Amino acid sequence: MSGGGTGGHIFPAIAIAQEIQKRFPQAEFLFIGANGKMEMEKVPQAGFKIIGLNIAGFDRGNILKNLRLPFKLLSSITTARKAIKEFQPDFAIGTGGFASGPALFMASNLNVPIFVQEQNSLPGKTNTFLAKKAKAVFTAYPNMDHFFPKTKTFFLGNPVRKNIITDLITKDVAKEKLGLDKNKLTILSVGGSLGSRTLNNGWKQNIEKLIEKDFQLIWQTGKLDYKSLNEDSKISYPPQIQLKEFISDMALAYSAADVIVSRAGAIAISELAMAQKPVLLVPFPFAAEDHQTKNAMTLVEKNAARMVKDTEMKEKFWTTLMEICENENLRNEMSENLKFFAKPLATERIVDEILSSLNIKA
């Protein structure tokens, strides 16, 4: 298994490995990641062995740093080759990120069958390159055959956390558990574990309007801004606004929401599709190749979401949000359209397809 750099690459890889492990308890796994990246911590936490490559991406901010890239790439290919020859895998799966390029390229060269899982609607360069050698490519969005070979591309969805699927409950019960009024419209705002300053500033600028509307807000601020927002003497938050640094039970928060405001990372969108709640997406503009905007636009084009760009927050955030909040018919239509992207059995079907293509029976 190889994938990393961000949770969006790591957690699908772990989910696929866990599904294989469930079917083959004696199976052995080797993850290949990038030294210094979060997979080196998250993969062992999930109970799997990982080795690290000294690989990095192209640094647009410091061109001189890229002089070392050819040497890092050569070193990574050599390390990957040695590890794969020693481990002798039956197959290899790449989920994107720096390390999966050398790892799966080398696996393919050693005649190991390779598979690619792409989370975004705009594929990363690594997966686009590897797809040429892959036995199959699994995507989270439809109509990806203009990036990948049509005959081996399967729209199966992104693997997501199992509890997001199993722990969703009715809206009224969820609101009650969170101490919220079940009769008031509730907005959930999520900006990732670190939070989103763009979203936090958007709420700061419009908090008085929200209070006037008597709407409820579950506001996940992230680590960076929680303390300053919590201690801001200029803002007095009534009980209907719940400030949270981190939300551990996302299924409960999704369940309680009438409307969700979120960034547009691939895994976030896959979870939102499971929750099937109308959503306003504010894509992170500095994601690689602006893929979050592409993810968001795929939903917008099917009327499954609305989008506001970072640069449009002051002018459009509140008006677009109110367009959703004050139109129940629109909310119902968006929820219905989100079902198209909901793939609760994505992990199982990816593993089914891998085993079928290799004629392996569980």
Automatic annotation (TrEMBL):
Biological process annotations from GO: carbohydrate metabolic process; cell division; cell wall organization; peptidoglycan biosynthetic process; regulation of cell shape
Keywords, alphabetical: Cell cycle, Cell division, Cell membrane, Cell shape, Cell wall biogenesis/degradation, Glycosyltransferase, Membrane, Peptidoglycan synthesis, Transferase
Catalytic reaction list: di-trans,octa-cis-undecaprenyl diphospho-N-acetyl-alpha-D-muramoyl-L-alanyl-D-glutamyl-meso-2,6-diaminopimeloyl-D-alanyl-D-alanine + UDP-N-acetyl-alpha-D-glucosamine = di-trans,octa-cis-undecaprenyl diphospho-[N-acetyl-alpha-D-glucosaminyl-(1->4)]-N-acetyl-alpha-D-muramoyl-L-alanyl-D-glutamyl-meso-2,6-diaminopimeloyl-D-alanyl-D-alanine + UDP + H(+)
GO molecular function terms attached to this record: UDP-N-acetyl-D-glucosamine:N-acetylmuramoyl-L-alanyl-D-glutamyl-meso-2,6-diaminopimelyl-D-alanyl-D-alanine-diphosphoundecaprenol 4-beta-N-acetylglucosaminlytransferase activity; undecaprenyldiphospho-muramoylpentapeptide beta-N-acetylglucosaminyltransferase activity
GO cellular component: plasma membrane
Annotated compartments: Cell membrane
Glycosyltransferase family 28 N-terminal domain location: 1-139
Record-annotated Glycosyl transferase family 28 C-terminal domain positions: 186-343
Extent of the signal sequence: none
Membrane topology listed for this record: Peripheral membrane protein
Residues binding UDP-N-acetyl-alpha-D-glucosamine: 6-8, 120, 161, 193, 247, 292
Matches recorded under InterPro entries: GlcNAc_MurG, Glyco_trans_28_C, GlycoTrans_28_N
EC number from the UniProt entry: 2.4.1.227
Coiled coil feature spans: none
UniProt pathway: Cell wall biogenesis; peptidoglycan biosynthesis
Role noted for this protein: Cell wall formation. Catalyzes the transfer of a GlcNAc subunit on undecaprenyl-pyrophosphoryl-MurNAc-pentapeptide (lipid intermediate I) to form undecaprenyl-pyrophosphoryl-MurNAc-(pentapeptide)GlcNAc (lipid intermediate II).
Family recorded in the similarity comment: Belongs to the glycosyltransferase 28 family. MurG subfamily.
Name of the protein in its database record: UDP-N-acetylglucosamine--N-acetylmuramyl-(pentapeptide) pyrophosphoryl-undecaprenol N-acetylglucosamine transferase
